[in-house]
Amino acid sequence: MTAHGSSPGHGHGHSHGNAADAPAAPAGSGRLLALLLVPAALAALIAMVVLWPGEQRSTNTQGLDQDLARGTVTAIHPGDCGPGPTACPQADVRITGGPGEGQTVSVPAPAGIGAPTLAGGDKIVMVYGPDAPPGSQYQVIDFQRGSPLLLLALLFVAVVIIAGRWQGLAALGGLIVSFAVLVLFVLPAILNGSSPLLVAVAGSAVIMFAVLYLTHGVNVWTSVAVLGTLGALLLTGVLGLVFTNAAHFTGLASENAGMISASYPDVDVRGLLLAGIIIGSLGVLDDVTVTQAVTVAELHRADPAMPRTALFAAANRVGRAHIASTVNTLVLAYAGASLPLLLLFTAGGRSTADLLTSEVVATEVVRTAVGSIGILAAVPLTTWLAVAVLPSPAASAGSRSRGRRRKFRTTAWSRRG
């Protein structure tokens, strides 16, 4: 995995430096990293094969399985809703896909606080209930969003390729690998009753190996980042296991988890919480570890005579500046996702202590704290590994001195000739 320590043909850059152009590490370091990482990669692949979902077990999915129809609103008109002054608008919808395709049906428009307003030309999604009374078999549940999302995806791909060029293209390949592992392995395996924790560990390891080597190339510095990410993920998983047990989380704090538990009783919802912590941390960890590995390499390039302790301290300072903003980003991301819930609790007059220790909020607190600790640990761990694989300052100085002597002899010989 690490044989190509400095080959330009096998490395890709990073936003904080180019690993392919980094100084070559001793061959022994590459072999040692390979001895550590090859068994880990094989273990991840074997675990993936063992946990691969077979035929899905029969479960009670009532409420999850729905017949969906897609259509286009052709007209809005008043409807009959019985006695009373309340208006009940009806929408005429031409069904373009699903049950009743080709028909035009009249459905009640969404009503109530916050309900979306329909207009002619809107593309909507309806749920079809064949056993419902005539006139109520179709109910509007959502808008079709395929076109704007496809446009945004194409714009995203274009910007990534223009900004990152070949490395941007490699990053898109890594994104496809991540999505494929999640959709084809992680989700079906968990629904099939496998341990969410084991599935998340195996899936995250496969994603990490594939994405980092695909995006940043097969070289010593990527291998250092992979090893640092593995160590930080292990710490994150252990801390998550300890504190989810200590806090007596049931895993049923959200409505979605309750629906999964009711429909798929074999799914370990507590393990699902741990799996979310591990997978959620991976995306930030690989950025931090690659940054640290390349930072050490570039600092060594700038001053090959710098002592290891000074190099470690300098790279750590860069890492601390990076993680300060990263941790804040994690906290704000979780707070933003939980904002409606926090508003609900605040409006209910609950004290701050009660708010923070309720399972719904405490789950996010543990998720944020555990993920942040893993990120914080990744910086010194990866920095230490990167410093350890570098040649000693004396060896670097000797190499430069030999290079100067060879250059002097070549110049002198050419003058003599």
Outline the structure in words.
The chain is of the alpha+beta class. It folds into two domains: 8-57 and 154-402, no CATH class; 67-144, OB fold (Dihydrolipoamide Acetyltransferase, E2P). Helices cover 63% and strands 11% of the residues. It is built from eleven helices and seven strands. The strands form two sheets. Strands 5-4-3-6-7 form a five-stranded antiparallel β-sheet, with no helix packed on it. It has a two-stranded antiparallel ribbon with strand order 1-2. Strand 4 and strand 5 form a beta hairpin. The model is unreliable at 1-18 and 398-417 (pLDDT under 50).
Q: What brief labels describe this structure?
A:
417 residues; alpha+beta; OB fold (Dihydrolipoamide Acetyltransferase, E2P); 2 domains; five-stranded antiparallel sheet; two-stranded antiparallel ribbon; 63% helix; elongated; disordered N terminus; disordered C terminus
